[in-house]
């Protein structure tokens, strides 16, 4: 399943895909998903891809702690912007930027931080309910990034957000279905054409499928510790057709 998470339920979408009988059938797409719906959907899934940072940069967390204690030290050898970049972006953000050319939103310095606060609460509830949570993606949940996923599969990945871009959203959905004729949206086709959140949730579910098959980039041994605290974006390393049931 996939979640396009937002700070509030009104902009949050959930998509569930059934992979059986030689097809990938979209079983459910819901827009306006509250925490309870997200939690139920994740706990029903074999793998759940959530489009939201799972944590904050370790360097940023240490900076905030030092600031609270009145003990911030700015390295003299770094220019201001370089030092701030090291605080604003996670290890996985820099890996995605290097490998795809896309720059994820900074959870430490952009509005995505509001969504990450909600995500932290959801992950905590999952852990308390007995669902294994590993921010590096080794458990049931995995962090995904729809734009990077689409770009990896050589599909359009820009300018489909918002009501003014519905025509382009529909074109991108057609491109996705053309590249994956085994993906059956069923009665949810129109929802994915009207709501970019719903479309992103479906892409998140496809990325989760790639993660469940072990077909995504994983942290190196040097990156593993950061991935467990900061989160890790699972970008597919396979073709879209490799997900075929």
From TrEMBL:
Protein name, per record: Nuclease with RNAse H fold
Q: Which Pfam families match?
A: DUF429 (PF04250)
